[in-house]
């Protein structure tokens, strides 16, 4: 599967492109801005792009009106086709947000129910009771997603709904040539629908990638044979920043051992979960870390740990964004990409990750672990890489058996000699490939 040795870049198009917050019905080609950033994405070292919702919606994209028309605030279907062609020409795969759990109140089938009530052929597309009323005084009650009644929950037990959504995915592949889907709130989706979707996509396009948004619980519920290829690793997302803020690297390393360690009870050995330090729903990394010297280390852990790394637009140069200021603060429009020392480091790490068999597919074994330092090993039959992090402001001598006398740092390209261990400078991160 191509995604297993990829680095993803995530964009929230409505915010990124500077679209109006409310759908004003005016068609403007803003989505071409994504193509303008293709060179930056490629230079950064990412070779796959995950796009948050781009289809016609009431407001923020997750309240879909029409699955088969690009949101007018972003442009037209033809505009998006040109974007995908540009990305593909640069070797960048494209994954779209599949928002299949719910739709907006402006969704065409729901509007038909509002108009015709019992006489609508689409009344069973939703969870509706004509014995009640909604907060919007529709004359019937319906189920909203987790109490958000602007998000109308679809009835995924209705074969007509499933057929419509699968036909939609086929349309996206045939019309735009997309390479996969990120499934919004995958933890809420009917499991039979997930099995059906996986089977359909396997026959639709070779190696069509399916990754689900999952928060807590056993990720094996949604990934594996016949289900999704991957899901979001929120457990380690929290551990990454929290371990550095509390200067307790035991937190993240113990999570990684629980998920990918050598023990028989390890939960996700052999699986490739999508890992990240921030996204469109959470406070940006530069805003949540209490020590800005830890930013390169945070990304070092991200690219060194098992999984598929995903970068959120703007965070590669340390953009700020606080969830407490609302979602819009997390989804801004930047005039152009920036590049600084952090971006240089992330680019080098992304290249190292993509080109290293051990970092993409290797097992996980910890060698050194203190509150402020960690050294862990990623290994396959053909390659061994040691990931070393010192989160302290003081140098630290790490005692461990490297298993080799010499290594090359995949981040800097510099040679390194071991002597019963290695000195780790303050605020340092290394990817040592053993020679």
What does this structure look like?
This protein is α/β, with parallel strands linked by helices and 435 residues long. It contains 13 helices and 23 strands. The chain has helices at 13-16, 32-36, 38-44, 77-89, 108-116, 159-176, 191-204, 234-245, 250-260, 285-288, 295-304, 341-355, 357-361, and strands spanning 8-11, 48-51, 55-57, 64-70, 93-98, 102-104, 128-129, 141-142, 144-145, 148-153, 180-183, 209-212, 230-231, 274-276, 308-312, 363-369, 373-379, 384-390, 396-399, 406-409, 415-417, 421-424, 428-434. Strands 13-12-11-5-2-1-15-14 form an 8-stranded parallel β-sheet. The radius of gyration is 23 Å and the shape is elongated. The two termini are 28 Å apart.
What are the low-pLDDT stretches, counting only 5+ consecutive residues below 50?
none
Strand content: 15-25%
Helix content: 25-40%
What's the average pLDDT? Answer: 97
Number of helices: 13
Gyration radius from CA atoms, angstroms: 23 Å
| Total strands | 23
Biggest β-sheet, characterized? Answer: 8 strands, parallel
Shape: elongated
Distance linking N and C termini = 28 Å
């Amino acid at each position: 599967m191509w995604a297993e040795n990829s680095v993803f870049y995530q964009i929230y198009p409505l915010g990124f492109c500077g679209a109006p917050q409310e759908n004003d019905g005016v068609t403007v080609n803003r989505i071409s801005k994504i193509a303008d950033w293709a060179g930056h994405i490629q230079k950064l070292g990412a070779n796959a792009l995950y796009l948050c919702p781009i289809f016609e919606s009431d407001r923020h994209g997750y309240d879909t009106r029409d699955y088969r028309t690009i949101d007018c605030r972003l442009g037209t279907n033809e505009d998006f086709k040109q974007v995908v062609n540009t990305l593909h020409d640069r070797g960048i795969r494209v994954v779209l947000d599949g928002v299949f759990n719910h739709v907006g109140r402006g969704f065409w089938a729901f509007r038909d129910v509002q108009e015709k009530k019992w006489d609508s052929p689409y009344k069973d597309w939703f969870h509706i009771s004509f014995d009640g009323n909604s907060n919007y005084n529709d004359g019937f009650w319906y189920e909203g997603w987790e109490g958000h009644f602007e998000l109308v929950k679809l009835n995924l037990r209705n074969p007509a709904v499933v057929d419509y959504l699968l036909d939609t995915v086929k349309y996206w592949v045939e019309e735009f040539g997309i390479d996969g889907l990120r499934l919004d709130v995958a933890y809420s989706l009917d499991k039979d629908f997930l099995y059906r979707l996986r089977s359909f996509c396997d026959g639709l396009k070779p190696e069509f990638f399916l990754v689900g948004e999952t928060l807590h619980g056993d990720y094996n519920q949604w990934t594996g044979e016949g289900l999704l290829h991957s899901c979001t690793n929120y457990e380690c997302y929290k551990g990454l920043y929290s371990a550095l803020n509390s200067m307790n690297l035991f937190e993240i390393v113990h999570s990684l051992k629980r998920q990918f360690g050598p023990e028989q009870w390890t939960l996700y050995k052999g699986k490739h979960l999508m890992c990240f330090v921030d996204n469109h729903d959470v406070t940006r990394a530069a805003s949540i870390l209490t020590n800005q010297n830890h930013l390169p280390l945070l990304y070092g852990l991200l690219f060194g740990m098992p999984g598929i790394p995903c970068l959120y637009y703007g965070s590669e140069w340390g953009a700020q964004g606080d969830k407490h200021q609302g979602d819009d603060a997390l989804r801004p429009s930047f005039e152009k990409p920036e590049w600084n020392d952090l971006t240089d480091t992330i680019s080098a790490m992304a290249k190292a990750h993509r080109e290293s068999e051990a970092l993409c597919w290797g097992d996980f074994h910890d060698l050194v672990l203190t509150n402020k330092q960690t050294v862990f090993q990623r290994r396959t039959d053909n390659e061994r890489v040691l990931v070393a992090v010192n989160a302290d402001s003081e140098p630290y001598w790490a005692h461990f058996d490297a298993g080799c006398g010499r290594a090359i740092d995949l981040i800097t390209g510099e040679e390194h000699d071991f002597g019963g261990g290695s000195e780790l400078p303050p605020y340092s991160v290394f990817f040592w490939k053993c020679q």
